[in-house]
C-alpha cells in the first residue's frame, strides 16, 4: 500500500522485527520489546515478531494463525488470549497437533511470562499474544 503525492509516496508494510526478543512489558494496548514498542497484538515466531490483527472479541481461527501454520520450527504455541483465558476450538487444536504443535491457552500476562522463560531455555516456542 502506498500513500503520498506523486512518485514520492510512503510505503506502509506489515509490522515485522526479524529477531527473537523477549517481551519487556505489556499492557495499555501493546507490548515493549527490543527497546521498541508495538500497539496491538503480536505473533512471536522463529522468523521474527509480527503485528497480528487479533482482538479479544474475535475468535482465534486457523485463518488468524495462518502465519503460525506456515512457519517451521515450532513445537509449542502459547496463546495469550487477552485479559482472561479463552479455550481453543477443538478443531484448531487438532490442526495444530497435526502439524506437531502443542498449544496452551492462557491470559496474555501468563503467556508473556511463560514465553520469556521458554525462550531463555532455547525451547522451540512461539507465542500469539492478544494485546491488553
Automatic annotation (TrEMBL):
Organism annotation: Agrobacterium albertimagni AOL15
Domain of life assignment: Bacteria
PANTHER family, alphabetized: NADH DEHYDROGENASE [UBIQUINONE] 1 ALPHA SUBCOMPLEX ASSEMBLY FACTOR 3, NUCLEAR PROTEIN E3-3
Biological classification of the source: Bacteria, Pseudomonadati, Pseudomonadota, Alphaproteobacteria, Hyphomicrobiales
UniProt name for this protein: Mth938-like domain-containing protein
Pfam families cross-referenced by the UniProt entry: DUF498
Amino acid at each position: 500500500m502506498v500513500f503520498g503525492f506523486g512518485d514520492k509516496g510512503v510505503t506502509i508494510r506489515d509490522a515485522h522485527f526479524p529477531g527473537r526478543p523477549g517481551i519487556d512489558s505489556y499492557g495499555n494496548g501493546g507490548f515493549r520489546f527490543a527497546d521498541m514498542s508495538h500497539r496491538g497484538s503480536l505473533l512471536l515466531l522463529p522468523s521474527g515478531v509480527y503485528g497480528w490483527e487479533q482482538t479479544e472479541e474475535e475468535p482465534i481461527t486457523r485463518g488468524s494463525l495462518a502465519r503460525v501454520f506456515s512457519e517451521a520450527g515450532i513445537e509449542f504455541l502459547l496463546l495469550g488470549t487477552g485479559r482472561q483465558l479463552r479455550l481453543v476450538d477443538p478443531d484448531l487444536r487438532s490442526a495444530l497437533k497435526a502439524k506437531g504443535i502443542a498449544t496452551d491457552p492462557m491470559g496474555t500476562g501468563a503467556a508473556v511470562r511463560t514465553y520469556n522463560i521458554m525462550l531463555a531455555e532455547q525451547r522451540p516456542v512461539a507465542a500469539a499474544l492478544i494485546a491488553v
